[in-house]
């Protein structure tokens, strides 16, 4: 904005305007379009001057919060623009915080995308630019005097019958009449009548040719309108296809996130199921141990008349262990069911 103001003599700008250019570059790299694009140069200038209200991020493009904050910090007034106090405040921005590299080893870190090149002049990663098959450039006649519009001074030849060049017979007769002015008036009248008839025939032919040319022009205009309508229809279908493709890509990214979440839940269910299976095995071991103790106590009771109270206590412990084992079995079955449903959703 300060560069545009300086063109009218009302402002000035410094090095901080370069960081505005970096913001425009980042926006175009992430979005695929310039941030202040308009159909006319005046519209673009107006958006730049009103950047606080005209800067918008498209909803169908996924951009991180840190990237948006960095772009907005660049595309703002020069008094508060990021980088006005030096490059260090830019390096410390959260957008550049990551686990892969820092500002000390960035030149030694492998890039996330390394294109495969067959040679130093390999251009396979760039789009082909079609040759312009349009008509050659034409230059208008300059308004300033250059001298080449002057007649050929000193060149005395002038063809008076230039307009009659398309009618050679008529031209000859006109010249003949000029040279033989002493001929009789009757002969001149007869010749003039023949000339008028021939001239009328020429006019009729030219009128027919003009009508044919007008008809051809109308046919071409009709074909042009039909082609133009077809082109507009194709462009509309292309816009709809592009919009549909962006919607599908957004839906695909959403499904990928949901798939990752389901995989995480499935792993968690599996971990819990394994944990419950271990608990169940431990409880089964405890139940078997209590059964053994109960049998041993019964045998001892038969031999040494152990008190019924001890046996009742062991029986109660056994019942509690059995109830706990049934509860754990139900829990393990429910976890296995959740794991099965989660696996089906992932597939």
Describe the structure.
The chain is an all-alpha fold and 347 residues long. Among the domains are: 1-97, Transferase(Phosphotransferase), domain 1 (Orthogonal Bundle), CATH 1.10.510; 194-306. The chain is built from 9 helices and no strands. It has helices spanning 2-7, 17-31, 41-49, 51-54, 65-74, 88-91, 168-179, 185-304, 308-346. The longest helix has 120 residues, at 185-304. The chain is elongated and about 165 Å long. The chain starts with a helix and ends with a helix. The relative contact order is 0.04.
Brief overview:
With 347 residues, the chain is mainly alpha-helical. It is built from 9 helices and no strands. Among the domains are: 1-97, Transferase(Phosphotransferase), domain 1; 194-306.
Question: What does the main sheet amount to?
Answer: none
What class would the helix/strand composition place it in?
Answer: mainly alpha
The quaternary organization reads as: single chain
Radius of gyration: 47 Å
Shape descriptor reads elongated
Instruction: Quote the distance from N terminus to C terminus.
Output: 53 Å
Average the pLDDT over all residues and give the rounded result.
79
Q: What is the element string, with H for helices and E for strands?
A: HHHHHHHHH
Give the low-pLDDT segments.
144-167
Helical content stands at 55-70%
Q: Tally of extended strands?
A: 0
User: What is the percentage of strand-forming residues?
Assistant: under 5%
Q: What's the helix count?
A: 9
